[in-house]
Amino acid sequence: MDEKDLELLRILEENSRLSADEIAIMTNLSTADVESRVHALEAAQVIKRYSTVINWERAGNGEVSAVIELKVSPERDYGYDRIAERLSRFRQVKTLRLMTGTYDLQLVVTGKNMQEVSRFVSEHVAPMDRIRETATHIIMKSYKENGHTLFEQQEAERLPYSF
User: Fold this and answer.
1) Among candidates 101, 104, 102, which has minimal Cα distance to 84?
2) One-character DSSP codes across the chain
3) Does position 156 have pLDDT exceeding 70, yes or no?
4) pLDDT (mean) for 1-28
5) What is the β-pairing status of strands 93-98 and 105-111?
6) Helix H or strand E encompassing 25
């Protein structure tokens, strides 16, 4: 992977809907070279998938999201990998990360309402072997997702100027 590949990745992360022609202009590569590089990055699973940032509040979905932090006892020879694999199988789990700090794993989960999220944590997550503690934080409102703001930015109001 070279600097051009990294540049392609940054561009695609910002806007994966750009055409190969548009990216070629931005990177000073040929369209064929852009297509070839993107295909190679997909084949190597550097690019895992393309997704859309959606403002669910504006879409009127009504789902609830929560950040769940977990203290976990790591498993000999596997560390956190096996428990992370088990957790990742749940459809409610949208994001799962290993972290430093007070908690070991962080999940972002969704449900129809707070009760469903609470039930998911209490019935499926907390009882798992090796989970020592959970902390649930309901997401009240998202202002930015994956680098994209979800609110309309107001134009700066011009202040009156007088002598």
Assistant:
1) 104
2) --HHHHHHHHHHHH-TT--HHHHHHHHT--HHHHHHHHHHHHHTTSS--------HHHHT---EEEEEEEEEPPBTTTBTHHHHHHHHTSTTEEEEEE-SSS-SEEEEEEESSHHHHHHHIIIIITTSTTEEEEEEEEE---SEETTEE-SPPPPPPPPP---
3) no
4) 93
5) antiparallel
6) helix 20-27
Other beta carbons within 10 Å of 107:
24
All structural domains of the chain, each given as residue ranges with its CATH number in brackets, are 3-43 (1.10.10.10), 62-140 (3.30.70.920)
The pLDDT mean for the chain works out to 90
Mean pLDDT of 11-26: 92
Q: For tokens 């990998």, what's the residue?
A: 81
